[in-house]
């Protein structure tokens, strides 16, 4: 899908000749380019076929399938190792032969050195010519090592890379097949960890595995040579090495154990940081920095504890590389001395290199090999566990979509489906669900939270396994998920989704989904890159992009999971008309929705409750049935800001009139309307405070005029601005010395650092001293042997005595001194390693803590401008480098650097001629390193930037897994993953080859150094002795390999210090104001007592270079006032929250109860304000901790709060109650439940000030009503500020604060503001449509009258408030209260004029009948609103118990006095009428509670009598 990652640049290795491949000459053009300019992705070479992800993935998938097939029914488990061995085993074994040649050369070289040293031994008989040959042989061995070492390492590293690529591809393919049961047993973090960390073990393990068989062969050869030179005493050294093998095995297991423990705590810390960064706004507003800080500190301390234990083992290993050979020297030398063998220089310098090599092999290489084997074993186990997770039945991976032909007679048939997600739970997710969706039919699914609506779609998609029943789908499916899924690519790529781009079709879809205007204002149109998870798009834009993608797929059957919930009113109506009933009108559609005004247009409606289908049929059939339809939907008639002004009802005491859905001719509709209204007038009215209302389920039918009035919305709606993510700041050039200073300063003070320097120098001094002492010892033995030889020669010639002095060699003294020096090497070596690792671990801990504290105290703007992944990268990758890689690499470099300096220094002191060659070699070294490091830095950067998309693609795929599988595009996503892997492979391949390019050139420099030293020794033979020649030559040979390794490590240290630099950047972020104020500025303990807020001349801007968002605003909010805040997008509504919480520091004056909030601590302020955020944020951990992180409240208080938000029963049903673990992101709770938990938090805090940031924007209808009711009941004594996107939720506020462009446009009671024809609120309200406008005006009027009437008591006021709440929750409108009153009064006057005054009872009865007749005969008031004369279909739904509390007893309603007899008689009459059968009526007479109806009848009669 992402064509931008493909480029054409053939790999020159394919055309390179063998010599070029051997010396990596084919890399020279790239180095030249990298030296001249920064390398880009286009400069990288394409992967060769054998390294391609698709090729390797296919091969491993086949081998794994064979492995699984072979082990079926047997005791043996499938083995990933066997599958990989069949792929790469032969190639890998061949490379072992190259290693064997290299190691054989290392054994032969000391023998040639021994021949060269004989030349410096008096009387050896070796001539000058032979000495030059020996010197040439030593030099040739050095060249052979330089030539053979790098092809082997490059070959095995390339195989390791292939294994990693193949395993990643297999892992990704498996993840796309995982069933929901399988997904529940893993996490995205674990899968990413397998891909990022575990597979990297292959890169290391393959390097050393061959040593397992080459090492023993080499040991046999070395033992034979040493036996020849030293005799049986050699066995002592080998015995030591063999005894250390089990110790190494034990240490390897210990290392593996510590690594596992560390990984566990690292995963936990990174997960915590991910949650903290994502929820930082909530954490700051709730003042939760301390508990989360303590939590991270606790986990980090545990992590550091195991990191330090690992470093102790690492110190032991690091020392063993140096100390191991010395320890073997000591044992062998001591044994040789004790058995009376005098060690001459030739023997010593044959044995020393061999012992050194064997010591490193046994104590270093084999230990690392063992360690890697343990790591790889863990990896294989983890991979096996993952590959064994359950997966969905085998499906086509969608590689042949182009061959697809549309199916005929597309349909979905659902027959008696029973299903459950969790087999251990008794309650099924779905039960007794049956439905058929034919072509051209729309089936709507409705129901409350947790009813199983989305689960039914999952069952259709085969994601939810069925227990009983069957589901058959004819045709290709397309699915739009409830939470829109957008991946990181261009907007066009998100919509086209890998299909062929067809402009005409594409433009038509954009128009249908109302995306044209959005695209028009994007920087690069539809080619604009949208960030990870679509961070640069709004929720509504993401929903429309997701919908457009489904349309572009041109599938046969469409499953739409509430796609309209994220868009606003007008766009929602536009999409419903142009997509659901337009673009898709001829296809089967299943629509899960809470937008109940659209139900009338569905051919069939399914009602789900607790997983069971409790109703099915058309809208009309469900209305006519006896099902509790109205009760189910009464509180569900919400989300009215998204209902496109389609409601035609009058709430708060108005008629709920509906237009007919029938397709009868217009005349019949009019006639039917008369009949229905007349029939209903006396029999189906519900009475609320003297006004009429019809049944609630009729309130869902929309005005046809309002439907057509938004028909051109695609051209009229205002587009939303897209904000592109900022690029991450990147430093240029080398890492400065200041970074090194800060690093060591964080880990050590000046004393500790000086001690570290002393230990480093002391350890290196002891190391050189040990070798010098051996040289001195061998020279003494050589001098003794030479004198003894001359003495014996003279005696053989017949002399009785000679004047030759035979030196006395004190062997015991030499052994004792050598032992002491080796003890010093061990002591200083281990102390140096431990001190170094202690300093680096402390530095890592200190810098992590500093960065975390800096992040926690940073301004909220930092988190708004930096994506979560970018910040998290510092806490995961960068801290990970500082914990694990940097200490080892830095120590290795330090050790190598000191050894190299020591080697060059010793060789130069012994033979000053060497410095002639050293000078130009150093110049060459500097030039080559500088030439290399510039290109290497570019490639390292490219490797990092190309690695990220691999993980991002995996993460995005797991997020959109259901969508991917629904569209059957797994093949395309596998192809995309392979493309991302190939791009990373290009960078990794260059990383390997550039490393080898440098290494082979440095080894050639070292070979030249060895050659120079060996030949200069022959030239300066007169001034040298055998011991010094042996010492300098041994050191020079040691330089081979070590030099290039040290240089590469220096470059690696510089690269890894970038992590320190990045962490230091985040440690210096600007901080917020202090959390706690000084005692002299602290507010009183009981502050605030009232909750009065005064804002004077306040301005706010988010940064110095951004515009002012709040401009010199002033207002005062009295205690207990309920304030609504409205305004268009960008008006500054959310900035008010930012201002009051001081998330950004404003200018001006803000006081709460006369305390200046700008002068007190942030926690002093924020602790006193509760907030219910728009997006509910839950954190991983116990539910108890999510409610009360400081443990300030008892369990009883927590249960009470849960009970007040209707969650108590749900939590009690959970196995662990309050101790239930909240999953990552709170996904084990529904969105509605998460919002209710946030509401419970606010209740627990019990503050005097509450802020609500449209807490019901993303919840279902029932939850919306519940939240609104709870807020009004629980916070009636608080000052409440509500930011509203839905006007109906704030129309009953005391006052409305209307913002425009950061300024207060209006601030008064809603009713008064609506009287201003040109007022901004009036304009906002009118944009919702005529019917909605009428409804909102009515709510505001009733609320205003209720609050400003002095003649009613509190009980009546409460009753009226309940009525207003009922109106808000129902939120439909037909005719205004004034229109109803006018009709009533006109009828009464006409009655009086015609018949005079008569019996009161007859008058009232006649009046009622006349009203009914007039309402059917005269012009329908709705016509004025709707513009069309349509059938008025009026039904009476079943009332729920809430009617009692809303309507109240008659005595609570001030409507005048009514004669008791009239009440009784009329009540009996109406009750009798309501009891009649209604079969001949086209209405549904619901079952009305008798007490409720009696009360309402009294209200009706009282009202009529009062008016008459």
Q: Strand order, biggest sheet? A: 5-8-9-3-10-11
Termini Cα gap: 75 Å
Provide a count of the helices.
50
Backbone CA Rg: 42 Å
Average pLDDT confidence is 75
Structural class: alpha/beta
Shape call: elongated
* Sheet having the most strands: 6 strands, mixed
Uncertain segments of ≥5 residues (pLDDT<50)?
396-404, 633-725, 1369-1384, 1396-1508
Strand content: 5-15%
In which range does the helix fraction lie? 55-70%
Number of DSSP strand runs? 25
The gist of it:
The protein is of the alpha/beta class.
Describe it for me?
Helix content is 59%, strand content 8%. The chain is built from 50 helices and 25 strands. The strands form 7 sheets. The chain has a 6-stranded mixed sheet, with helices on both faces. A 6-stranded mixed sheet has the order 19-22-23-16-24-25. The radius of gyration is 42 Å and the shape is elongated. It starts with 17 loop residues before the first helix and ends with a helix.
Helix-strand blueprint:
Elements lengths: L17 H6 L4 H9 L16 H18 L9 H39 L9 H50 L2 H5 L3 H11 L1 H9 L2 H20 L3 H45 L1 H7 L2 H50 L6 H43 L23 E9 L10 E8 L4 E5 L6 H8 L5 E9 L2 E4 L8 E2 H6 L6 H10 L3 H5 L8 E2 L8 H14 L4 E5 L7 H15 L5 E4 L11 E6 L2 E6 L1 H6 L4 H5 L32 H16 L4 E3 L2 E3 L10 H6 L3 H4 L20 H11 L2 H47 L14 H46 L3 H6 L2 H43 L3 H46 L1 H6 L3 H50 L6 H41 L26 E9 L6 E10 L4 E5 L6 H8 L6 E6 L2 E2 L5 H5 L2 E4 L8 E2 H5 L7 H10 L3 H5 L8 E2 L8 H15 L3 E5 L7 H14 L4 E5 L11 E6 L2 E6 L1 H4 L6 H7 L3 H19 L5 H17 L6 H19 L4 H18 L3 H6 L15 H6 L12 H16 L14 H18 L1
Parallel strand pairs: 3-9, 3-10, 5-8, 8-9, 16-23, 16-24, 19-22, 22-23
Antiparallel strand pairs: 1-2, 1-4, 6-7, 10-11, 12-13, 14-15, 14-17, 17-18, 20-21, 24-25
Helix pairs in contact: 2-30, 3-4, 3-5, 4-5, 4-9, 4-13, 4-33, 5-8, 5-32, 7-30, 8-13, 9-13, 10-12, 10-13, 10-29, 12-13, 12-27, 12-29, 13-33, 22-46, 25-27, 25-33, 26-27, 26-29, 26-33, 27-29, 27-33, 29-33, 30-32, 32-33, 37-39, 39-40, 43-44, 45-46, 49-50
